């Protein structure tokens, strides 16, 4: 029997008293936010490195010594499954002369050896072997290790804070109870990774996050049916902490959704996990859309497909058909980013103009700005009593 996610006793996200949008309103954003190299460097240090980010699926490193090398926004880390089932992780940088210690993913490692000069590290990143050790200053080598990253697991994913332990607070606090409940209802920990597709695109990483934080573009770019355009006007959006949520009724579910209020089992549910992940959830399957910065105008965009682990062939056929459709839609987004890249440096590109239904984008950038200014990205939600009533 294939698992069917339902809302259960979770709060209603659609229906009477639930506004379509929070009172964030229309906004504008300077184009230099996407193209300023100095800003990008500060985003690396103050936003990305200090946030919880997804690294891989827990199932990719199941046994002791199994390890995963992750690279993005100028950083390289290695995460290893310990003998006790926990995780260890450190920056994948040899402390001798600055090269990668571990080049690729692997299994069953007990130590890692840098191939340049054979410096050896344990899975915690401690230097445990130095050829010709007496030739070095003893005090410098004493206790030497590569800086640690903080790690945790939730939803079948491995998460990391690259700036180290204690910087971002607990993972569940970062996700927040609202998204932990709603997103948790899909039980991603019981799903399997079916496919991961990657593109390298010549746009800023935030262009990718923006693209999956609104539904406004679907009518034009994806040419969705007129009935879906009309029903999607009833979508609801909200922000919680640093994160965002969007519930979109498509494929003729609107009336049933109004009757049952079960957004989890009926609607397309998008969950924005600041800073670099957007989950696109459906009762059959779930995608992670992830933006990994490679430079100020270069991004690795990843689309991960999760499906429930079952031998039910009818389910597998349906999930595969839906996933093929999603990939075709996503390719349209990727193709459009070529046009975005073509004018990114244009003197005529001065600002982005967001409407009220692009509120998740506005909130995302406000959180970025707050963290760049030294804040924690919290306390930026609008007053709930100011929310507009739902559309009739």
Automatic annotation (TrEMBL):
Domain Rieske: 52-160
SUPFAM superfamilies in alphabetical order: Bet v1-like (SSF55961), ISP domain (SSF50022)
Keyword Oxidoreductase: yes
Keyword terms: 2Fe-2S, Iron, Iron-sulfur, Metal-binding, Oxidoreductase
Entries under Pfam families matching the protein: Rieske (PF00355), Ring_hydroxyl_A (PF00848)
Keyword set includes Metal-binding: yes
Region (Disordered) residue spans: 1-22
Source superkingdom: Bacteria
Cofactor dependency: Fe cation
InterPro entries reported in the protein's UniProt record: Rieske_2Fe-2S (IPR017941), Rieske_2Fe-2S_sf (IPR036922), Ring_hydroxy_dOase_asu_C_dom (IPR015879), Rng_hydr_dOase-A (IPR001663)
CDD domains the record matches: RHO_alpha_C, Rieske_RO_Alpha_N
Protein name (database record): Rieske domain-containing protein
Organism of provenance: Microbispora triticiradicis
Lineage: Bacteria, Bacillati, Actinomycetota, Actinomycetes, Streptosporangiales
